[in-house]
Specification:
This protein is an alpha/beta fold. 45% of the residues lie in helices and 9% in strands. The chain has a 5-stranded parallel β-sheet.
């Protein structure tokens, strides 16, 4: 029988809302180590029956909306600790953002951005990871979300250049496919329609690597918890199973992203020179 704590729960105080392959797992793991923070502490009891490991993403606003707010609320504890969720794909569709704002309008939002060229290649690399049970998992879930898992299987059999060419020919939209997931400005413009900027913290992934303690102190200040010394995990969920990107492909992607990055910098009010460090 489910405990009263699980039945009641509370809505999260903050959400790491993206972006996919930009450090959301690292944020989830490291913030979980703060003594005043819990990250979806009851999610495993709902999603992976019989297993006690904590689950990073509950996919409420994008995949499990039909489960209802009571189910979502039960994933968090009603105690004196901040409750948080990490999700890598909530910004990929305006409807997900709209749902999020309707349920947790006062939640603080953290968004991690990474050089979109490197992010795209990292996503491709992740699709090449040698997961022993990936095929069986994909086949088992194919009926529930056909487009998502068919894409995973397709990516494993295609080269990166081939994928990019196919996406360009088909037409790229924000939040779609590999390339479109790097159109950050379009996603943030939608987010700012529903959340005031003072409720949103933007993190540049490359700067996290340069000064992890300093960035986390800023996050703790933003969330309103005391600064704490954390034994940081530096490399979480890193893709290592592809060769370096070709110079030709990098140049082509930079050209695609250039206008989007300029609009992003205007929106943020600052540039990110780290994204052009190799020029």
């Amino acid at each position: 029988m489910m405990s009263a704590r699980l039945l009641n729960g509370k809505l999260p105080d903050f959400i790491i809302a993206g972006i996919y392959k930009s450090g959301t797992t690292s944020l989830f793991v490291n913030l979980s180590k703060h003594p005043r923070i819990e990250m979806t502490p009851n999610a495993s009891k709902h999603i992976i029956s019989g297993k006690m490991q904590n689950v990073k993403e509950v996919h409420f606003f994008n995949e499990r909306w039909a489960n209802g707010v009571s189910w979502y609320q039960s994933l968090f504890n009603n105690n004196n600790k901040l409750q948080g969720e990490a999700a890598s794909k909530y910004l990929f569709d305006r409807e997900f953002i709209k749902r999020m704002s309707s349920v947790v309008p006062m939640a603080k939002i953290i968004v991690s951005l990474r050089n979109p060229v490197d992010r795209a290649y990292s996503q491709y690399g992740f699709s090449k990871e040698p997961f022993p049970n990936l095929l069986s998992v994909v086949q088992a879930r194919l009926e529930r979300n056909k487009s998502k898992y068919k894409e995973i299987l397709e990516l494993r059999n295609m080269g990166f250049d081939e994928i990019i060419k196919k996406e360009i020919q088909r037409g790229i939209g924000a939040g779609r496919d590999i390339v479109g997931k790097g159109f950050y400005v379009d996603m943030l413009e939608q987010l700012f329609k529903y959340y005031p900027r003072e409720q949103v913290m933007i993190i540049i992934s490359e700067r996290m690597k340069q000064d992890m303690p300093g960035i986390y102190n800023r996050i703790f200040d933003f969330l309103g918890v005391p600064r704490a010394k954390i034994d940081f995990d530096m490399n979480v969920n890193v893709s290592e199973h592809v060769k370096p990107m070709s110079k030709r492909t990098r140049k082509a992607l930079k050209k695609i992203y250039d206008s989007y990055n300029k609009r992003l910098f205007d929106l943020l009010g600052y540039e990110v020179p780290e994204w052009y460090a190799d020029e």
